[in-house]
Specification:
single chain; 377 residues; alpha/beta; Rossmann fold; Alpha-Beta Plaits; 8-stranded mixed sheet; 4-stranded antiparallel sheet; 11 helices; 17 strands; 38% helix; globular; stress response
């Protein structure tokens, strides 16, 4: 929190009180009249100390930097409904223009399949917002039984990978399929399909873990952030093993600045970690050059398709982190990306789908197409 935005209220005196009420005002980020928040006294003093430390640190962000982060956090949220007819008409024009640039993968299905005829399709799927809906509690982002069945059918017909920012253990627990590749922690933890032996034990094949040395550091930062974000209602810290996520979906927008500053203040002491942003989530990752695009290339190489002209990689995702994979496919000039979004946004994808239900429909049609082409051979 920057000093110009936080004013200690005279509702509660600082000395001799267990809690402190502050008003947040004097900034375009906050509403008028001032909004009041009550913090435990000890936690509030820690926040002030952290802010002072940042102000004195050569890498401190300053109000402008925090403001830009809040703007970025706001941009990652779904577009708000607008009331005026003029705004509505403008939105419709923008969406129409966007759909022309990134047409529906369902409407363009036949064209896509004609380009893939006689070639090997390899499927890459994001999880949150793609196979499962975005939900308030990320621990409850369950995949439907219908979606699980269609992903299983896809995996029986094409090499298939789920590429996610989540840990492999958590996504595997959601998906419950052994026939696919899992690339967790934004591709920093990659495992191949697993097979159970006669004793019911799983033979898991770890293919690649380029950030293994960062695990102790990630675990330490998780504990620090869990403590620092206790005073921010709705904030949730998720340990994804090789990276971590700070979810702000349930955080009041008026205190996003406080959350952003808390997260950034921790990273001052960890220069080997970097902060990126996803869909209502701040993500902390090792500074190594590795992302979902690199994971896509690695998996293609592992499958023996690195230099093949007869392969069509298809990547479906909804988040900013999926743009790295879309960009790889665009630069290759091979395969295509599909962005899952109901609102127009800049993307390196080639096509679009609106939500997981349309992803489900696309995958069903893909399996039917495969079965039909096999029957015709």
């Amino acid at each position: 929190m920057t000093n110009q935005n936080v004013i200690v209220s005279d509702r509660n005196p600082i000395l001799g009180s267990k809690t402190i009420t502050v008003s947040v005002s004097n900034s375009p980020l906050f509403s008028s009249p001032p909004t009041y928040f009550t913090f435990p006294r000890r936690k509030f003093l820690e926040l002030l100390e952290a802010a002072d430390k940042n102000n004195n640190n050569k890498n401190n962000l300053g109000a402008g930097k925090i403001s830009s982060w809040v703007d970025s956090m706001r941009d990652s949220s779904p577009t708000r409904l607008r009331s005026s007819s003029r705004d509505s008409d403008s939105d419709n024009d923008e969406k129409t223009s966007w759909i022309v640039r990134f047409p529906s993968a369902l409407n363009m299905f036949d064209k896509i399949m004609n380009a893939a005829k006689g070639k090997q399709i390899v499927m890459f799927l994001d999880y949150d917002g793609t196979l499962s809906p975005i939900v308030e509690d990320p621990d409850k982002a369950y995949i439907t039984h219908e979606m699980r069945e269609v992903v299983n059918d896809v995996a029986l017909n094409f090499p298939t990978a789920i590429v996610t920012g989540r840990s492999i253990d958590k996504v595997r627990a959601f998906v419950k399929l052994n026939e696919i590749y899992y690339a967790g922690s934004h591709g920093m933890d990659i495992e191949g399909p697993t097979n159970e032996n006669s004793y019911g034990e799983s033979n898991q094949g770890v293919l690649f873990q380029p950030a293994r040395e960062f695990v102790p550091m990630i675990e330490k930062v998780v504990k620090i952030l869990e403590e620092k974000t206790k005073c921010i209602p709705g904030a949730m810290v998720e340990n994804n093993k090789f990276c971590l996520s700070v979810h702000f979906r349930r955080v009041d927008e008026k205190i996003w600045a406080a959350l952003a500053e808390q997260v950034k203040s921790v990273l001052v002491d960890y220069p080997k970690l970097k902060l990126t942003q996803g869909r209502k989530v701040l993500e902390i990752r090792p500074t190594i050059k590795w992302d979902k695009g690199q994971a896509l290339n690695f998996l293609l190489r592992s499958l023996g398709f690195e230099h093949s002209e007869n392969v069509v990689p298809v990547y479906i995702g909804d988040d900013r982190t999926d743009e790295d994979a879309f960009k790889v496919l665009r630069e290759k000039g091979q395969g295509f990306g599909i962005l899952v979004s109901k609102v127009p946004k800049e993307t390196n994808a080639s096509y679009s789908l609106q939500d997981p239900s349309q992803v489900n429909e696309f995958l069903k049609r893909l399996v039917d197409w495969k079965r039909k082409t096999v029957g015709e051979e």
